[in-house]
Specification:
The chain is mainly alpha-helical. The protein has one domain (about 5-145). It is built from six helices and two strands. The protein has a two-stranded antiparallel ribbon. α2 packs across α4 (about 100-110).
Length: about 150
């Protein structure tokens, strides 16, 4: 398969918007929790409602996380990447990356290191170079292309 031209790489803007969509989707259970908690203040037996709301929040949050992991692992796309029409591919084969590449190295490793601001800066800043790859792309040997 021929090498991709530069124009087929996803732009930093597309990647950023896709990430913001993914983060926005994770906020939905929080908004549901907040809204439900506001309603339950006036209802009797608040502890029962708080428990039910927390269980619903956790379930919705985990369902979104697992859905994202399945999409990334299987198709190389999160919900944000689907909306932005971009996807993760292996840098050599140009096919959807493996589960190890897409999920473990690209998704879980940066998530584990999220609190380390030095890693976060080193991870994201290379996306503005000509190759448009973050540190996790280099580690996983992947690129993000227009779907």
């Amino acid at each position: 398969m021929p090498l991709l031209k530069k124009s087929t790489l996803a732009t930093p803007h597309e990647r950023f918007v896709a990430k913001m969509i993914d983060l926005g989707i994770l906020i939905i259970p929080t908004l549901i929790l907040y809204y439900t908690y506001g309603i339950q203040k006036e209802m009797p037996e608040p502890m029962m409602w708080v428990g039910a709301v927390m269980a619903s929040f956790f379930t919705a949050f985990m369902m979104i996380i697992f859905l994202q992991w399945i999409l990334i692992g299987e198709y190389g796309q999160s919900l944000g990447k689907i909306v932005m029409r971009i996807r993760i591919v292996d840098e050599k084969t140009k096919k959807t990356g493996t589960l190890v590449q897409n999920l473990f190295i690209r998704t879980w490793l940066p998530a584990i290191m999220w609190e380390n601001l030095v890693f976060l800066a080193c991870d994201v800043l290379p996306v503005f170079r000509k190759e448009r790859r973050c540190l996790h792309d280099y580690l996983a040997k992947t690129i993000v292309v227009k779907a």
